[in-house]
Design goal:
With about 200 residues, the chain is of the alpha+beta class. The chain has helices at about 5-15, 30-40, 60-65, 75-80, 95-100, 105-110, 115-140, 150-160, 190-195; strands at about 50-55, 85-90, 145, 165-175. Strands 1-2-4-3 form a four-stranded antiparallel beta sheet. The mean pLDDT is about 95.
Amino acid sequence: MTLALDAAAQDLLFRGAQTANTFTDEPVTDEQVQAIYDLVKFAPTAFNQSPLRITLVRSTEARQRLVKYAMGANGDKTLTAPLTVILSVDLDFHEKLPTLFPHAPNVKDAFFSQLAVREVAGTQNATLQAGYFILGIRAAGLAAGPMTGFDFDGITKEFHADGKQKAFMVINVGKPGPDAFFPRSPRLSFDDAATTV
């Protein structure tokens, strides 16, 4: 069986794409980031809650604030990428549900009135959106360097002091630079990953 997506697109999004560790200095424009978001916003989330929030880190001052919370080599990579984004979950995403899920106006209060519930549901769905966002970066012909090796409590306090967002991932974005990719690690086969019941 073949896929509807042609082989070149499959390679761009999956087989030929890897996490980038170095980048050229070619800028990533606001227009590119908006085009990425305008594509991936159509991917599904539960109740269409769309809790992902994106902070574009461009200035030297903001990068210095961010890399204080980096582990290992993540700081150096972040300082040299043309664009870095902080992905966060909006803990008040439910406030937008009357607009995003208008056919069920009671969902906001019936399911998401408690912060603890919103944090779990929002984190699950924002993480799902992060995967879409990485694919969107690849669809734009750019490379993504997603990282979780950061102190996200520190990032949250630094960039979202009002407590309404909670950071969970940092992604460097740009054109891959010299020696950008490590050798690809093995993947599980379908038989190892799937079970029929």
